[in-house]
């Protein structure tokens, strides 16, 4: 019989609850009576394309736009070149000056529907066309930015963990799988399931279960690269999508995550709780034509990890 989660009462007094994870786009109110409103900042807001709703702040200097994960504005779209365009943000005699330059992209860069030649100075409200994306140049103050980011959170993030929600995760997987297939680049996925989570809810209550989910979301974020994606796709089930990663790299990521959770008990109001997870890893193979094939292998590997005793990482059996 498998053992359930173990709790250790905190000495002296009850441990503090696991703190809520800090949302990357949380709205932080300005204290009352504090100075004047913050000056407007320049940003690109995605009005169309797979990044719909996202805000890309523009900082003085260069902003690179392209498909490569290392770009400042990374747009995962097969119609976008790896290095597609560049924005230079400088200061002129009359204030900020933004110049857009196409970097010999395959499909060109458009401003307000017209393909640009050479450099083009941008004005507030200009619409940049990059592949299937439309990015609008806006000057927004802190309140307006907080509004846009909150609306994006409501539509794409899981409110409990701060990770991507199920719909956004599966949509992003479809996009990244398509790029991996078209350009024959490696792609790995990791499916994770919290061990004995039902017992935690049944014995300690759903509040404790929520604390565990929040803490796991923190551990996941701490191990992600900028180009990776993590989402909650079920009650206690999570999916991590790792571009430019093969099976070995995916397994290393999964092991780091497993150890990060198992190494330190979580503090709950009832005491300390030891929590573990099981993980399944798979990589895109040449025969794969749709992401469901990749997910099926990762799910089978996750099932194998749970059958083998939990708190471990498994990969699909080698193909003969």
Write up what this structure looks like.
With 320 residues, this protein is an alpha+beta fold. Helix content is 28%, strand content 29%. The protein contains six helices and 19 strands. Helix 3 crosses helix 4. The longest helix is centred in the middle third of the chain and has 18 residues, at 166-183. It is globular. The protein starts with 5 loop residues before the first strand and ends in a 6-residue tail after the last strand. The model is unreliable at 6-39 (pLDDT under 50).
Question: Which features would summarize this protein structure in a list?
Answer:
single chain, 320 residues, alpha+beta, six-stranded antiparallel β-sheet, five-stranded mixed β-sheet, 6 helices, globular
In short, what is this structure?
The chain has 320 residues and is an alpha+beta fold. The protein has six helices and 19 strands. The strands form four sheets. The chain has a six-stranded antiparallel beta sheet with strand order 3-2-12-11-8-9. It has a five-stranded mixed beta sheet with strand order 5-4-6-7-10, with no helix packed on it. A five-stranded mixed beta sheet has the order 14-15-13-18-19.
